[in-house]
Amino acid sequence: MVTRRDDRSFKSKASSLTDSTRRYLVTSRDILRFSHSIDADWVEREMLSNGEAAAPPLFCQTMAFAESSLQSLSRDGTPSEVNVFGEDKKVVGVASEYHIVRRLNHGEIIRVKTSLVDVLAKKGRSGDLIFVMVDSEFEDEAHLCVARERATYLHRP
Questions:
Q1: For strand 90-100 and strand 109-124, is the pairing parallel, antiparallel, or unpaired?
Q2: Single pTM value for the model
Q3: Which listed residue, of 25, 26, 36, 115, carries a Cα 20 to 30 Å from 138's Cα?
Q4: Of the options 3.10.129.10, 2.70.150.10, 3.10.350.10, 3.40.50.800, the CATH number for the domain spanning 2-26+55-156
Q5: What residues contact 123, with CB distance under 8 A and at least 6 apart?
């Protein structure tokens, strides 16, 4: 049985960790690194007339979380935006739905706005399960949407 979590203090804490806006500069180096990590031949197939490669469709994943030092991550590497229960809790990404409007190019500045959508609680066989849904919108400098993501994370408190 799934129920909506009505604990205001929890929602407030979750919201403060997930409601954020940040800016990223898209660089050829980042495009190249991401491209090689998913498909070594991507750059050669997708080279643009100006000699640059457009970013692969899921490149926005590299901007999903704020940049942070290794010391600020939890022991399992969970970013603070989704680690709403604290250090000793397990967090797993269980779903991600992307809407890609267009691919990104070198030199673009992208604004990422992340916000908490919902928190659902479910009783599992081995204990409580908390699902946290987060939306991210990626906009260019003209404030036009280039991509959207709805991600769902599972917390085991």
A1: unpaired
A2: 0.77
A3: 36
A4: 3.10.129.10
A5: 1, 129
